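Appendix B, record 7
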Amino acid sequence: MNTRTRQNSHNPALLGAFWFGIQMVWGALLGISLQSRSVEFYPHDAVRAYNELAISGACVAAVTQIVAGIISDRRRKNGSRRLEFYACGAIVGAAAVIWFYLAPDFRQLAAALLVLQLGLNIAIGPYQAAIPDFVEDAQLGGASAWMAALQSLGNVAGALAASFLKSAAAVGAAIAGALLAGFAVTAAHVRNLEPLAKPATPLRITRVFTDLFISRALMYVGFYTLLGYLYFYVARLMRGDPKANVGELLVTFLASAAIGAAIAGRAAGRFDRRAVAAAGGGMFICALVAFLFSKTAVELFGAAALAGAAWGIFLTADWALGCALLPRGSLATAMGVWNLALLIPQILAPSIVGAVLSALHALQSPDAARVAFIIACGEVAAGVAWLKRLPGAASKSA
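C-alpha cells (predicted):
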C-alpha cells in the first residue's frame, strides 16, 4: 500500500521543472542567439555560419543521448533514479551556457556550443524517462500536457532573456541559474518517488517504434526549419532590432504553444493521439503559409500565434504517444533513440535548406528564409501523413 501511494504521489509541475530550465536554454539559443552571434562574427555570411553551428551541435547531441540512455538504463537496474545524469547535465550545461555568451570569437563559440550539447544531452534522455518511470498510463495525457506547457514556458523565458537582457553575462547567468534551479526542484521531488517498474529488457526496434520515430522526425524537421530561419526572415521584413523583434514573435509563439498544450491535454488523454497530433500538424502548415504571405507586423504576429498553438497541440500528443508506445523495459535507451527524431532534424533542417539554397545560388538572397518556409510545409505534411501508420488502439488511452 505504501509503495502504491508513493507511485501515485508525483507532481507533474515538480517533475517538469528541470524541463523548464533545459528548454530555457534552447529557447534562447535555437531561435535567437545562434543566429545573432553568427551575424556578430560573420555579418556577410551568417546563414552559412549558423548552419555549421547547428549541424555540429546536433551531431554531438545525437551521439551523447544514445550513450547516456544505455548507461542510464543499466544504472536503473541497480536501483538508480537517474539523478546522477540530471546533475551532470545541469552542472556542465550551466557552465557551458555562460561560456557561450561570453565567447570572444567564433572558435570559442563553437566549442562552448559543443560542450553545452554534450552536457545537456547527458541529462535529456535519462530525464525524459521520468514520465514513464513514475506516471501511470491513465495519467499520461495530463503529465504530457504539463511537459509540453513547461517546454513552451521555458522557451518563452529563454527568448525573453536573449532578446531583452542587454549584457551577455546577464543572459548567461539568468539561463544557467534557471537550469540549476529546475534541476534542484525536480531532483528533490524524484528522490521521494518510487518507480513503477525496473527496466529489464534490451531495446528492440519494432515497426511501431520506427513509424513513431519517422513521423516525429519529419514534424521536427519542419519545426527547426521555421525556427532556424525566422530570424533572417524577420530581419528583412521588420524594422528595428532583429533580436527584439524575433524575441517578441517567439514569445507570442511560445505563449500560444502553452495554451495549445493545455487545450490538447484532455484530448490526448481521451481520444486517438494520432488525430490530435495530426490536427496540430495541419494547423502548423497553415501557419507556415500565413508566414509566407505576411507583410505587416500584425500578420506576422498572427502567424506566430497560430503556429504556436499548433505546435503546443502536437507536442502534447507527441509526448503522450511516446510514453504510451515506447517500451518500458528500456526507457532511457528508447528515449535516447526516440530523441534522435528531434536531434537529427536539427542536422537535416539546415542541411536541406542549405543544399536547396546552394542549388538555387541563393544562400545570400533576401528570399532565402522564404524558400526555407516552403520546404518546411512539405516536411510537416509528410510527418502528418506518416502518423497514420501508427497503431490506432495503442495510440488511445485505456
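Remarks on this record: The chain is about 80% helix and 0% strand. The radius of gyration is 20 Å.
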